[in-house]
Protein backbone atom coordinates (compact mmCIF):
# COMPACT_ATOMS: atom_id res chain seq x y z
CA UNK A 1 0.00 0.00 0.00
CA UNK A 2 3.06 2.28 0.06
CA UNK A 3 3.41 4.98 -2.63
CA UNK A 4 6.46 6.65 -4.07
CA UNK A 5 6.65 10.41 -3.69
CA UNK A 6 5.70 11.14 -7.29
CA UNK A 7 2.53 9.08 -7.16
CA UNK A 8 -0.52 11.25 -6.63
CA UNK A 9 -3.18 8.55 -6.25
CA UNK A 10 -4.59 7.82 -2.82
CA UNK A 11 -5.06 4.31 -1.55
CA UNK A 12 -8.75 3.68 -0.97
CA UNK A 13 -9.26 1.58 2.10
CA UNK A 14 -12.28 -0.74 1.98
CA UNK A 15 -11.24 -2.23 5.32
CA UNK A 16 -7.90 -3.06 3.72
CA UNK A 17 -5.93 -2.74 6.95
CA UNK A 18 -6.63 -5.33 9.63
CA UNK A 19 -6.05 -4.46 13.24
CA UNK A 20 -2.71 -5.65 14.48
CA UNK A 21 -2.96 -8.65 16.78
CA UNK A 22 -3.23 -7.92 20.49
CA UNK A 23 -1.03 -10.95 21.07
CA UNK A 24 2.04 -8.86 20.29
CA UNK A 25 4.10 -8.04 23.40
CA UNK A 26 3.97 -4.52 24.81
CA UNK A 27 6.58 -2.35 23.19
CA UNK A 28 5.73 1.28 23.84
CA UNK A 29 3.83 3.76 25.96
CA UNK A 30 2.33 6.25 23.53
CA UNK A 31 1.04 9.74 24.29
CA UNK A 32 -1.77 10.87 21.97
CA UNK A 33 -3.21 14.37 21.98
CA UNK A 34 -6.73 14.59 20.61
CA UNK A 35 -9.65 16.90 20.00
CA UNK A 36 -9.89 20.71 20.13
CA UNK A 37 -9.13 23.11 22.94
CA UNK A 38 -11.11 26.12 24.12
CA UNK A 39 -9.80 29.60 24.86
CA UNK A 40 -12.42 31.52 26.81
CA UNK A 41 -13.25 35.14 26.06
CA UNK A 42 -15.65 35.46 29.00
CA UNK A 43 -17.49 32.96 31.23
CA UNK A 44 -19.69 31.70 28.35
CA UNK A 45 -17.88 32.36 25.05
CA UNK A 46 -14.72 30.79 23.71
CA UNK A 47 -12.54 30.31 20.63
CA UNK A 48 -12.30 26.75 19.32
CA UNK A 49 -12.51 24.64 16.15
CA UNK A 50 -14.52 21.71 14.81
CA UNK A 51 -12.11 18.91 15.74
CA UNK A 52 -14.18 15.91 16.89
CA UNK A 53 -11.53 13.64 18.43
CA UNK A 54 -12.45 10.80 16.03
CA UNK A 55 -8.97 10.52 14.53
CA UNK A 56 -7.38 10.53 17.98
CA UNK A 57 -9.75 7.82 19.11
CA UNK A 58 -9.04 5.74 16.00
CA UNK A 59 -5.29 5.99 16.52
CA UNK A 60 -5.67 5.06 20.18
CA UNK A 61 -7.61 1.98 19.10
CA UNK A 62 -4.95 1.06 16.55
CA UNK A 63 -2.14 1.46 19.09
CA UNK A 64 -3.97 -0.60 21.70
CA UNK A 65 -4.72 -3.32 19.16
CA UNK A 66 -0.98 -3.50 18.48
CA UNK A 67 -0.35 -4.22 22.14
CA UNK A 68 0.87 -0.79 23.21
CA UNK A 69 -0.04 1.29 26.24
CA UNK A 70 -1.92 4.48 25.37
CA UNK A 71 -2.34 7.77 27.21
CA UNK A 72 -4.78 10.24 25.63
CA UNK A 73 -4.76 13.92 26.55
CA UNK A 74 -8.00 15.22 25.09
CA UNK A 75 -9.78 18.50 24.76
CA UNK A 76 -13.60 18.62 25.04
CA UNK A 77 -15.14 16.02 22.70
CA UNK A 78 -18.30 13.95 22.49
CA UNK A 79 -16.60 10.73 21.34
CA UNK A 80 -15.65 8.04 23.84
CA UNK A 81 -12.09 6.76 23.93
CA UNK A 82 -11.24 3.05 24.32
CA UNK A 83 -11.64 1.85 27.91
CA UNK A 84 -8.10 0.43 27.85
CA UNK A 85 -6.63 3.88 27.23
CA UNK A 86 -5.78 6.25 30.07
CA UNK A 87 -7.55 9.53 29.34
CA UNK A 88 -6.76 12.91 30.84
CA UNK A 89 -9.32 15.61 29.90
CA UNK A 90 -8.22 19.23 29.47
CA UNK A 91 -9.87 22.41 28.23
CA UNK A 92 -7.32 24.98 27.12
CA UNK A 93 -4.14 24.73 25.06
CA UNK A 94 -2.11 25.74 28.09
CA UNK A 95 -3.65 22.91 30.10
CA UNK A 96 -2.93 20.43 27.31
CA UNK A 97 0.70 21.50 27.19
CA UNK A 98 1.09 21.36 30.97
CA UNK A 99 -0.24 17.81 31.16
CA UNK A 100 1.76 16.65 28.13
CA UNK A 101 4.99 18.09 29.51
CA UNK A 102 4.40 16.19 32.72
CA UNK A 103 3.54 12.88 31.04
CA UNK A 104 5.87 12.87 28.01
CA UNK A 105 8.94 11.92 30.02
CA UNK A 106 7.32 8.56 30.81
CA UNK A 107 6.36 7.83 27.21
CA UNK A 108 8.23 6.43 24.22
CA UNK A 109 6.59 8.66 21.64
CA UNK A 110 3.94 11.24 20.83
CA UNK A 111 1.19 11.31 18.20
CA UNK A 112 -0.05 14.91 18.13
CA UNK A 113 -3.50 14.54 16.60
CA UNK A 114 -5.16 17.34 18.57
CA UNK A 115 -6.10 20.65 16.99
CA UNK A 116 -5.30 23.05 19.83
CA UNK A 117 -6.66 26.57 19.48
CA UNK A 118 -3.78 28.72 18.18
CA UNK A 119 -4.89 32.00 19.76
CA UNK A 120 -6.22 33.22 23.08
CA UNK A 121 -7.47 36.61 24.24
CA UNK A 122 -5.02 38.86 26.02
CA UNK A 123 -7.64 39.22 28.73
CA UNK A 124 -10.50 36.95 29.79
CA UNK A 125 -13.45 39.09 30.85
CA UNK A 126 -14.76 38.36 34.34
CA UNK A 127 -18.38 38.83 33.27
CA UNK A 128 -20.28 38.09 30.07
CA UNK A 129 -19.47 40.61 27.35
CA UNK A 130 -22.61 42.64 26.68
CA UNK A 131 -23.85 43.69 23.24
CA UNK A 132 -23.45 47.42 22.61
CA UNK A 133 -24.42 47.75 18.95
CA UNK A 134 -20.79 48.59 18.15
CA UNK A 135 -17.99 46.44 16.66
CA UNK A 136 -16.13 44.37 19.23
CA UNK A 137 -12.36 44.35 19.04
CA UNK A 138 -10.56 41.25 20.26
CA UNK A 139 -6.86 41.34 21.05
CA UNK A 140 -5.43 37.86 20.58
CA UNK A 141 -2.01 36.35 21.17
CA UNK A 142 -0.64 32.98 20.13
CA UNK A 143 -0.94 30.00 22.43
CA UNK A 144 2.07 27.72 22.97
CA UNK A 145 2.67 25.00 20.37
CA UNK A 146 2.22 21.66 22.11
CA UNK A 147 3.93 19.42 19.54
CA UNK A 148 6.80 21.86 18.91
CA UNK A 149 7.50 22.20 22.63
CA UNK A 150 7.60 18.44 23.14
CA UNK A 151 9.52 17.88 19.91
CA UNK A 152 12.30 20.17 21.06
CA UNK A 153 12.62 18.07 24.22
CA UNK A 154 12.12 14.62 22.74
CA UNK A 155 15.66 13.31 23.37
CA UNK A 156 15.43 9.63 22.37
CA UNK A 157 11.68 9.65 21.87
CA UNK A 158 9.85 9.93 18.55
CA UNK A 159 7.23 12.54 17.58
CA UNK A 160 4.50 12.39 14.92
CA UNK A 161 2.62 15.57 14.09
CA UNK A 162 -0.54 16.41 12.14
CA UNK A 163 -0.83 19.37 9.77
CA UNK A 164 -4.14 20.69 8.46
CA UNK A 165 -3.46 23.02 5.55
CA UNK A 166 -5.49 24.85 2.90
CA UNK A 167 -2.69 26.42 0.80
CA UNK A 168 0.69 25.00 -0.28
CA UNK A 169 -0.10 21.97 1.90
CA UNK A 170 3.04 19.88 1.41
CA UNK A 171 5.38 22.84 1.73
CA UNK A 172 3.70 24.04 4.91
CA UNK A 173 3.52 20.53 6.34
CA UNK A 174 7.23 20.01 5.73
CA UNK A 175 8.02 23.35 7.37
CA UNK A 176 6.02 22.26 10.41
CA UNK A 177 7.80 18.91 10.47
CA UNK A 178 11.16 20.66 10.65
CA UNK A 179 10.11 23.38 13.11
CA UNK A 180 8.44 20.92 15.46
CA UNK A 181 11.26 18.34 15.27
CA UNK A 182 8.87 15.63 14.08
CA UNK A 183 9.87 12.24 12.70
CA UNK A 184 6.73 12.03 10.54
CA UNK A 185 4.07 14.59 9.60
CA UNK A 186 0.51 13.57 8.69
CA UNK A 187 -1.00 16.03 6.22
CA UNK A 188 -4.77 16.43 5.86
CA UNK A 189 -7.23 19.13 4.87
CA UNK A 190 -10.16 20.98 6.47
CA UNK A 191 -12.59 18.34 5.21
CA UNK A 192 -11.24 16.10 7.98
CA UNK A 193 -12.80 18.31 10.65
CA UNK A 194 -15.80 16.69 12.37
CA UNK A 195 -15.93 14.04 9.64
CA UNK A 196 -16.09 10.24 9.73
CA UNK A 197 -13.60 10.03 6.85
CA UNK A 198 -10.12 11.33 6.18
CA UNK A 199 -7.58 11.64 3.38
CA UNK A 200 -3.95 11.95 4.40
CA UNK A 201 -0.37 11.97 3.19
CA UNK A 202 2.46 10.82 5.44
CA UNK A 203 5.64 12.88 4.98
CA UNK A 204 9.09 11.85 6.15
CA UNK A 205 11.88 14.27 7.16
CA UNK A 206 13.10 14.38 3.55
CA UNK A 207 9.75 15.74 2.40
CA UNK A 208 8.83 12.53 0.61
CA UNK A 209 5.26 11.25 0.65
CA UNK A 210 5.83 7.74 1.97
CA UNK A 211 2.16 6.85 2.24
CA UNK A 212 -1.16 8.25 1.01
CA UNK A 213 -4.45 6.97 2.37
CA UNK A 214 -8.16 7.68 2.08
CA UNK A 215 -11.10 6.06 3.84
CA UNK A 216 -12.84 6.04 7.18
CA UNK A 217 -10.81 7.47 10.03
CA UNK A 218 -10.54 4.00 11.55
CA UNK A 219 -9.11 2.57 8.32
CA UNK A 220 -6.76 5.50 7.80
CA UNK A 221 -5.61 5.32 11.43
CA UNK A 222 -4.75 1.64 11.01
CA UNK A 223 -2.63 2.41 7.97
CA UNK A 224 -0.94 5.40 9.59
CA UNK A 225 -0.18 3.45 12.73
CA UNK A 226 1.35 0.57 10.79
CA UNK A 227 3.73 3.12 9.27
CA UNK A 228 4.54 4.53 12.71
CA UNK A 229 5.13 1.01 13.97
CA UNK A 230 7.46 0.12 11.12
CA UNK A 231 9.42 3.37 10.88
CA UNK A 232 9.59 4.51 14.50
CA UNK A 233 8.50 2.02 17.15
CA UNK A 234 10.25 -1.03 15.77
CA UNK A 235 13.48 0.92 15.29
CA UNK A 236 13.44 2.56 18.71
CA UNK A 237 12.35 -0.44 20.78
CA UNK A 238 15.02 -1.40 23.28
CA UNK A 239 16.42 -4.96 22.99
CA UNK A 240 14.49 -7.45 25.02
CA UNK A 241 11.65 -5.05 25.77
Describe the structure.
- The relative contact order is 0.20.
- The protein starts with 10 loop residues before the first strand and ends in a 5-residue tail after the last helix.
- The protein has one domain: Rossmann fold, CATH 3.40.50.10300.
- The protein is 25% helix and 24% strand.
- With 241 residues, the chain is an alpha/beta fold.
- The radius of gyration is 18 Å and the shape is globular.
- It has helices at 54-65, 93-104, 146-151, 169-179, 217-236, and strands at residues 11-12, 29-34, 39-40, 46-47, 69-74, 86-89, 109-112, 119-121, 140-142, 158-164, 184-188, 197-203, 209-216.
List segments where confidence is low: pLDDT < 50 over at least 5 consecutive residues.
Answer: 1-8, 14-24
Number of strands: 13
Helix content: 25-40%
Q: What is the N-to-C order of secondary-structure elements (H for helix, E for strand)?
A: EEEEHEEHEEEHEHEEEH
CATH class term: Alpha Beta
N-to-C CA distance = 29 Å
Q: Give me the Rg, rounded.
A: 18 Å
Shape: globular
**At CATH's second level, what is the architecture?**
3-Layer(aba) Sandwich
Biggest sheet, in brief?
A: 9 strands, mixed
Mean pLDDT: 90
Report the portion of residues in β strands: 15-25%
Identify the CATH homologous superfamily. Answer: CoaB-like
Number of helices: 5
Given the helix and strand composition, which structural class is it?
A: alpha/beta
- The CATH topology is given as Rossmann fold
Tell me the strand order in the biggest sheet: 1-13-12-11-10-7-2-5-6
The overall number of domains is 1
